[in-house]
Design a protein that fits this description.
elongated, two-stranded antiparallel sheet, 14 helices, alpha+beta, 387 residues
Length: 387
């Protein structure tokens, strides 16, 4: 029954798993990277706060009757962690400038935890293996990667933590002289079994964190893309534009913002229905996409209005958009099989950075003004200058 209805559970599950892994292992898009840069800053702030709190642990250990040597090792590690956290925080404030930063900080978080455990093990093997307070920072490092919105980073961090802790545990077990070194009144007995349990917990936390990242990516996809055409939407454009502008400024180039509006589109919805209107929109988008080049971005702002970003000065941008206008006008839309083809056209206005504005709002305002003049002058035309 399920198979006849196209709802094969096994097929659906396998398809979902393929999408899960494909999305996690793919480099995030511009919007996710922008959000991830904000997440990296948040992680850096949290790391700094945690490093400050770490300074209290050696004091608490001494007051609780702990060994002085162990407390001094903890204090040295806490001071080092605080200094490094301030360095990472300074770099994270330069949002998105260093793409390697999340990978470097995740590696630092995991490796620092391993080094502290190794130092504790040099003093007492059982402490290195059973110090839960230090070991839990592996889990914290893995969980914090979820804020970076990059599934590859979460998987990398989880695998790195599991690998380092496995090697550390194996080395400690191999180097102890007697089983007495693996037992303590304060830390209990270190066994292979409880170390395997910890590795399993690390793998489970990694799985949970990757699922959170996947879910976040799905939600961002829904909020940053148009469900009808598959194009980025206004939310995506607002997040993406500052990055594009920074890249253009750094390269000394130009950036043209084109505002496109289909002519008399309301008639299609009124006379043929919204289903035909949706098909007409996809027809126009397909025609535009066929003439897009590397570096061009097309977004749907709503209704029959689109924004096209071209890494070109306004003159060349006008030439490119004029070619697109002619292509749309020359490829009639057929509402349904056997129906009379309809000729679709659009009007457009273009504004260019830096001449017409310094940010997206100013450029869209100028482009919209020229679009309105294009409509008043008879539609089916592109204007790049004020009348």
């Amino acid at each position: 029954m399920l198979r006849r209805m196209g709802m094969d559970p096994v097929t659906d599950t396998l398809s979902g798993l393929r999408d899960f892994w494909q999305r996690l292992l793919t480099r995030p898009d511009a919007l996710m990277l922008e959000l991830g840069a904000g997440g990296e800053l948040l992680v850096s702030q949290m790391r700094t706060l945690l490093s400050m709190l770490l300074l209290l642990l050696p004091l608490i250990n001494v007051l609780g009757g702990g060994k002085l040597e162990e407390s001094m090792i903890g204090l040295a590690g806490a001071v080092f962690a605080l200094i490094m956290s301030l360095v990472w925080l300074a770099l994270a404030r330069l949002r998105g400038r260093y793409r390697w930063l999340p990978w470097a900080t995740a590696t630092y978080d995991v490796t620092t935890t391993s080094l502290v455990l190794a130092l504790l093990a040099a003093s007492s093997p059982v402490i290195g293996l059973n110090s839960l307070v230090v070991w839990v920072f592996y889990l914290i490092a893995i969980c914090m990667t979820a804020l970076r919105n990059d599934g590859r980073l979460t998987l990398y961090t989880g695998v790195l933590a599991i690998t380092q802790y496995t090697l550390l545990s194996a080395a400690i077990f191999a180097l102890v002289d007697s089983r007495d070194q693996l037992a303590s009144i304060d830390y209990g007995t270190a066994t292979v079994g409880n170390q395997l349990q910890r590795l399993l917990l690390m793998a489970m936390v990694t799985g949970i964190a990757t699922t959170i990242v996947y879910r976040m990516q799905r939600l961002v996809d829904l909020s940053g893309s148009d469900s009808l055409t598959g194009l980025p939407n206004r939310t995506w454009l607002a997040h993406r534009f500052p990055t594009m502008l920074d890249a253009t400024r750094g390269q000394g180039g130009s950036l043209s913002v084109c505002l496109i509006d289909l002519d008399y589109f309301k008639r299609i919805n009124d006379e043929l229905g919204h289903h035909a209107g949706d098909r007409a929109l996809r027809h126009v988008v397909d025609t535009l996409n066929q003439r897009m080049e590397e570096g061009d971005w097309l977004a749907r702002l709503g209704g029959e209005e689109f924004a096209l970003l071209l890494p070109l000065p306004i003159g060349r941008g006008w030439e490119r958009l004029e070619i697109m206008r002619r292509a749309v006008a020359s490829q009639p839309f057929v509402p349904e099989h056997g129906a009379e083809p309809l000729r679709l056209t659009f009007s457009a206005g273009i504004a260019s950075w830096p001449q017409d504005g310094a940010d997206l709002s100013q450029l869209l305002r100028k482009a919209d003004l020229r679009l309105r003049h294009a409509k008043l002058e008879g539609r089916n035309r592109v204007l790049a200058r004020d009348p």
